[in-house]
Amino acid sequence: MTDTRRRVKLYALNADRQWDDKGTGHVSSIYVEKHKGMSLLVRAEADGTLLLESKIQTDTAYQKQQDTLIVWSERDNYDLALSFQEKAGCDEIWEKICQVQGKDPSVEITQDIIEESEDERFDDMSDGSPPIELPPCEINRLEEIKELMQTCLASPVRKEKLAEAIESEGYIRKLVGIFHMCEDLENLPGLHCLYDILKSIFLLNKTQLLDILFSDDIILDVVGCLEYDPALTSPKRHRHYLRTNSK
């Protein structure tokens, strides 16, 4: 098989929580009689030997990451990953997986719940994943920023990359500057977006980001962003309470 769309590298997580390269080959999705179901097969590029034969289970949480990576747990504490040469090939196999599980291919994870231990294991793939590019921090891009961050929360690898991008670009202080502009302009839709954006940053639960959020010079501005919960009919008065009532 010479189709580069189906060319993949197979990885398996070892006992030391490192990803071992199990070889390069070509993946296919076919019905395997002994498994009584659709299965993923990877045959080695060099000699055609079978590197992987994995039945697509209906209750396994498959994750699609960074457009060219599919990660899942084959069984307890045995994680596998397929890294595709081309996005088109990843999309094609992802559609087969989603078809078996009855999911819409637009999802990035096929099951709703990921155990924390799985989160930690998937984090180990982060070093080999490309960085996330944040949109320019501008008022007219707030909706785009919000959607990107909320999407990243579903993927442990993308959460890690998002946190790195936010820290390296000084993004939190840029958002605080946008917050002042939105309050001055009484731009309520923008303030609602900022609430969701700051909430997403808190949910990343990264110490280096929390240190910035709680910095003396911006903590009240961060609290101000959290006053504008879209679910409320009027803003909370968190800053007023902190300035006048709290000890």
TrEMBL record:
Q: Which residues form a coiled coil?
A: none
Biological process annotations from GO: DNA damage response
Q: Where in the cell is it found?
A: Nucleus
The name under which this protein is listed is Serine/threonine-protein phosphatase 4 regulatory subunit 3-like
Q: Which domain of life is it from?
A: Eukaryota
List the lineage, top down: Eukaryota, Metazoa, Ecdysozoa, Arthropoda, Hexapoda
Query: In its keyword annotation, does this UniProt entry include Nucleus?
Result: yes
Which organism's genome codes for this protein? Diaphorina citri
Q: Which gene does this sequence derive from?
A: LOC113467413
Q: Which GO terms describe its cellular component?
A: nucleoplasm; protein phosphatase 4 complex
